[in-house]
Write a structure and sequence with these properties.
Number of strands: 9
Number of domains: 1
Number of helices: 16
Largest sheet: 7 strands, parallel
Radius of gyration: 21 Å
Helix content: 25-40%
Length: about 375
């Protein structure tokens, strides 16, 4: 934990890198690089076997949830507003979710026609939502210390149980980048700090993949400020598959992984490589009280069709409020999408790449040898 005299910005400057003013662009560049690398890597038979359910599913729910939801001004606010660690971490005392908030998320995912869920277990802010034994900067410890008699809860466990209760496959998001940890930036230029931080990172991932039963997806994010060699990503992935042999991993720890992850755009990978487009329902991942740029149900349905037509998956985000409740707009939009999926889901699940693109009034997906035409002006799919 940082002393009150040292802000994260000062720490970044102290690394001798490009300085705090360059930190955000460099981090965002890292996001883009890891999201688009190794597009030509072809799937092996073993990957195809592990990923069969994922290709069939086509539609999943992303959940961004953490202390930034208390702040309610974007999940990058800690960095972009230069909030000192000692100030930001006070938000933990205000992060008081209602019991089993994840049950409503899972029920909504099922009603919307989604087949799997991926939740942020630790975002860039460094706050862990599970009962970690490697850091006290976690919800269980913070909740217990914030109020006398506060019930000890593991929010990751609540999420896993809720997802399984609704028949959802379970995914964990994990940010490699960490703005809270003292070595999170120092590791770039200090070898001793790098070793400590890599051991810490591998240890947290080990906890996640050991304590919650079978996990279906591991969704890495932002490998700033280290290279794959410095992260020891090969060793990281070996550990992951030793703990969870059937798991699927993405490409954001600097290695190709099992699938590519275009962000806020639909971009099919080359050479038949698996891919998943992750998108927000407005312009923010985490809860942002001022963001009212909501996509319509029709826009979301069209994007889902486009992903399916091009052979990819659509991971659509919700940003619950700090108490875990779902914003009204998200609930209404996904409820309407679910109504559309009741009649049109058959055209999405298990679909394959369709060479027929679209006409003036319709778009297409393909299942087996059948090309399916869907009128874009109506609710039902016409086949």
């Amino acid at each position: 934990m940082l002393s009150s005299a040292m802000t994260r910005r000062a720490m970044l400057k102290g690394t001798g890198a490009m300085g705090a003013a360059m930190a955000v662009p460099e981090m965002r560049a890292a996001m883009g690089q890891t999201a688009t690398m190794a597009a030509e890597v072809r799937a092996t038979p073993e990957q195809m076997r592990r990923m069969a359910w994922w290709h069939e599913a086509r539609f999943g729910m992303f959940i961004h949830w953490g202390l930034y939801c208390v702040h309610a001004r974007h999940e990058w606010a800690m960095e972009e507003e230069a909030i000192p660690v000692t100030e930001y971490q006070r938000l933990a005392a205000e992060f008081r979710p209602v019991p089993h908030a994840a049950r409503a998320w899972a029920k909504l995912a099922k009603a919307a026609g989604m087949k799997y869920m991926v939740m942020t277990t630790k975002h860039h802010e460094g706050f862990c939502l599970w009962d970690s034994k490697l850091t006290s900067y976690n919800y269980t410890a913070a909740g217990a210390n914030a109020m006398q008699g506060w019930a000890k809860r593991d929010l990751v466990r609540e999420y896993v149980e809720a997802a399984r209760a609704e028949g959802m496959r379970v995914g964990f998001y994990y940010s490699l980048m960490d703005w809270h940890h003292l070595d999170g930036a120092r590791c770039k230029t200090d070898e001793a700090a790098r070793k400590r931080f890599v051991d810490y990172t591998h240890g947290l991932i080990r906890e996640l993949l050991t304590n919650y039963g079978k996990i279906d997806v591991l969704w890495y994010d932002v490998d700033w400020p280290l290279t794959p060699e410095q992260w020891e990503s090969e060793r990281m992935n070996r550990m992951v598959f030793e703990l969870q042999p059937e798991i699927i991993v993405n490409n954001r720890n600097g290695l190709p992984g099992d699938f590519a992850t275009p962000e806020q755009r639909i971009e099919a990978s080359e050479g038949g490589r698996a891919w998943e487009s992750c998108m927000t329902m407005n312009d923010s991942w985490g809860f942002q009280r001022a963001d009212d740029a909501w996509k319509s149900p029709k826009t979301i349905a069209r994007k889902l069709v486009q992903c399916s037509r091009d052979g990819g998956n659509y991971l659509l985000n919700i940003g619950p409020k700090a108490d875990g409740t779902i914003p009204r707009e998200s609930l209404e939009i996904l409820t309407e999408v679910g109504r559309w999926m009741e009649t049109s889901g058959v055209t999405i699940y298990g679909s394959a790449v369709c060479q027929v693109r679209r006409s003036e009034y319709a778009t297409f997906t393909r299942k087996y040898t059948r090309c399916i035409c869907m009128c874009t002006s109506g609710r039902r799919a016409r086949r």
